[in-house]
Amino acid sequence: MARGERGRGRSEAAAGSCKPVWVLLGNRSGDNNQLLAVAEALGLPYDVIQLRFIDTSRSNVLLGASTRGIRNPQDLPAGSPRLVLSVGRRSPPVARWIRKRSGGTARLVHFGRPWGPTKWFDLVVTTPQYGLPARPNVLCNRMPFLSTARPHDEAALSEQVARLPRPWTVLLVGGRSRPYVFNEHVAAALADHADRRAQQLGGSLLLIPSPRTPPPCVELMSARLTVPSYTYRRDAEVNPYRTLLTAGDRFIVTCDSATMVSEALVFSGKPVELYRLPTRFSRKLTRVSAWERLAVHSGLARWLLQWAQWLGFVTFTRNLGAFYRELELQGVFSGTQDAAALARKEQQATLERIAALLR
Fold first, then answer.
1. In the prediction, which pLDDT does 62 show?
2. Which CATH class is domain 148-282+317-339?
3. Is 316 helix (H, G, I), strand (E, B) or coil?
4. How many Cβ atoms from other residues are within 10 Å of residue 290's Cβ?
5. Torsions phi, psi of 342, nearest 5?
6. Which of 48, 172, 182, 299 is 20 to 30 A from 212, comparing alpha carbons?
């Protein structure tokens, strides 16, 4: 499908001309939005292929370069692209199959963690929470690649929101995401914390849940607020999330989503408070932390760990604490570093690395 188009049918995709860039979409909207933002920024025509995965416990190493993990291999266009953009756990076998079919000419760029050896890809664009070792084909940015499209202006807000007294404290809420816990007890504590903050600052509190926020938790939080407030309910109106990123005066964001926190930092230019959710015990995270501590003090352990990652034997669980520590070191939460400027610099570096692959 042509650049910016999303809906070409299966037979047309197979018969149509091959665009130079293929974007392999998965199940997570945040991942997909990142790939689409990259494709748009490259300025090349691209095909968007929505992969439909088969539930399987087989590793990517066992699947190899194949389409055995998807239900719709017939939706892959004919011909060979110059570049394949992928993200997530299940897309690497398909990306590798496309390169194999191209005779090795297609370049592969994967975002996030590779779920296998990094050597599978020409470039892996990652962020600190995945703990990937430094390699020539690994680019570790501090922030995810965000869309450059401007959020809507304040005129798009509903009358109910627009008449609330200023300043606006915007509470962006995620949900359960391993290893973080989000239940009614956590929701109540979060609501009370945000309510106290809004009392201190004056004005109003705007509660914006995500699709992962359980509806009972949304209702519980809304009922506990004592300051003038607004609660977005998904079945009621257009989501004001994007609009409030520029219209809000202060933000409180739960720590379970790197993209949500990054968008608040980059698009608002306003103070952002990170609300740390409680965590539950994770055997895998405990093992990973032990390996990391050992690697700090032992060169041999560090070398073994990095090679195990590079070969795909070890895939680290997501450690968002490392992501936020890096942002804190950069000063984006304290205001000493302009988050938008940092994001633009990293996006430009990413695009230059990808463009170099196509020369």
1. 86
2. alpha beta
3. coil
4. 10
5. -65, -45
6. 48
Does residue 137 or residue 131 have the better pLDDT?
A: 137
Angle, nearest 10°, between helix axes 29-42 and 339-357?
70
Distance from C-alpha of 204 to C-alpha of 161, rounded to nearest angstrom: 10
pTM assigned to the model? 0.84
Topology classification of domain 10-140 = Rossmann fold (3.40.50)
pLDDT tens digits along 62-121? 899 999 999 999 999 989 999 999 999 999 999 999 999 999 999 999 999 988 888 999
Whether 263 contacts 245, CB under 8 Å: yes
CA proximity to 61, closest of 106, 119, 112, 101: 119
Cβ-based neighbour number of residue 296 at 10 Å: 9
Distance CA 357, CA 355 (A): 5
Same fold, 10-140 and 148-282+317-339: yes
Residue whose C-alpha is closest to residue 261's, from 279, 250, 274 = 274
Token pair of 41, please?
């920024």
From CA 308, how far away is CA 312, in angstroms rounded?
Answer: 6
Query: What is the chain's length?
Result: 359
